[in-house]
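Q: I'm writing up a methods section and want to include an example of the input and output format. Could you take the sequence below and give the corresponding predicted structure tokens, formatted cleanly so I can copy it straight into the document?
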Amino acid sequence: MSSIPSNLARVPVSLSSQVLLSNLNRTQTRLLETQVQMATGKRMNRPSDDIVSASLVNILENEMGRRQHRFRALAHADAMLGTIDQSLGEVSDLLLQAKSIASEMVNTSVDPDTRKAQATVVDSLIDEMARVANRDLQGIQLFGGERSAVRPIESFLGGFKFSGTKGALKIDVGRATGMPITFSADEAFGSISARVKGNVDLDPTVTGEVRLRDLNGAQRDGVTLGTVNIDLNGLDLIAVDLTSADSVQDAVDLLQDAILQYETDNSVTLLGSNGVRIDSTAGAISVDVASGVTLTFSDTLTGRTAADLGLSQSTFTTSDPVGEDLDARVTMLTKVSDLSAITGLGEMMISNAGQNRTIDLSSVQTIEDIKNIIDASEIGVRVEISDDGRSLNVLNDLAGGQMSIYNVPGDDSADQLGIRSFRRDIPLDSMNRGRGVQILSGNVDPVNGNPDPMLDRDFQITLSDGTAFDVDLAGAETIGDVIDIMAAAGPSTFGVGIDPGSGGLVLTDSSGGTGDFAVEPLNGSFAAQDLGILHSTTSATITGEDGAKVEVDSVFTHLITLRDALLENDIPGITFAGGKFEEDIDRAARARAVVGQRIDRASGMRQREEDEDLLDASLKSQAEDLDFTEASVRFSQLQTFLQATLATGAQSRNLSLLDFLG
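A: Here is the clean output for your methods example:
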């Protein structure tokens, strides 16, 4: 209850009125504020009510707004991943159906017409698999990788070409890394390409135009630019900053200018007539020093530029003026004329999916020209530079197509580029669609149980003059090994090599006889058949088939293989395709497990976000919401206080002089 202080017992009436009015205004203001709070349910209706709480509420509201975005992103991720999981389930079902068909059709009691009828069923499985691969949700391709707007699989030349990318599209969920919501086709359907790896080091010439970033460097780890120290014949040490150099010529010019400037400043002669230059033959920087002069290059304490440029490995003298090989990398701009391995390109052949293309390289100027011509052949192949920058690779992007690259008769362009598909270094286990070459080994005599080398012989070759010899390929790992073993086993009138034209092994008979030139299997071996040389002819040449054709190891390839094998009544082909489906089913199961992990991660993140949102909402409520119990008590107290103030004021206004006379 309000009262007039004792020290104001005798004061002017005006002062007493001011005190009274001040108390009334303050009480009414607080009463009004409490009424507004109770009407809005908010303890704080404007920032000035509580600056600290207002700042906290603003921070919490911003975070809760961002969290709503994450909620929507996680909901979208959940929908995408759920659809992918469902799609992978369909992939597994289709593969199981294809495997079941393959298992049934290998039965010898099944007639060719039944197999052809099942080929129609497999055709429908292929169409359904393509439909699943191209499935999208809200315009986002599920299996397009990072390329979400383009259908990842397209029909091409009777097969399927992958047009998406690897990796996955990610959405922002407010974490250090995004949430992957798509899959790459290779994760679900197998490889998206297969390659012929170049086996020739094209060895580009180091010229002044070559950029430093396109060098493997003397240490084979690129070139890091920095400062190079040069010990000038023991007279002095100068530092040359090469950070501004872009090309090899730039580096050479900077080094030479620094040395020439020192010569001018100190009236000495350090360089010979050739100065600092590029030795294209050695692929290195050469420093022609004057007679009796020694130049030593070194790096700073933390640098490596001199070592990368092949300058610090030795001291430069008149007898040793050349640094280490800089090992230039092949780039798209590399000139064909600068490739040491190329003596002149002409034509070569590329075959894929039953299509043949003659590739004319006679007019190419750069590696990019080669790439563009091959890419434009519209046969499902493309060119890339190997990771180490030494060679070219040719990739087959067409699932269902078998790619082979070989020379045109009289031309060795494919060999020069190192991209011929059938060659000496081809592993035998990679041939015949991965079935390899079945070679007998370790057979034992059924009577005494001892090893019997005679039972390991794979085939017999009979020349036209009647000369016959057996071939045991045990230990062979590559086509080159096969060629060497066959050549060693035969007489001088027998020759074996790789056909320079269409690929495959070529066997020659110069014995001049009148009989047949034949290759026959021994001991039930399939080696001759797998090598494509199981033939008999009246001519002097047996040309084998190319068993090293490159194909994409994918679901679509295996389904097409099964369909074609059923149409051709090819039981081994059906068996092979059926075995491949096991790998495909395992891959789909692994992909589905990855999706399950992502779904669990999304669910866990959503639960954590919900918990944090609840906590933030609680803090926000504490900062801005009204405690109605406390407000009601306060409102009642203020009403009482107001009434007391009014009563006190009324009493004080009625006082007179008589009230103070004692």
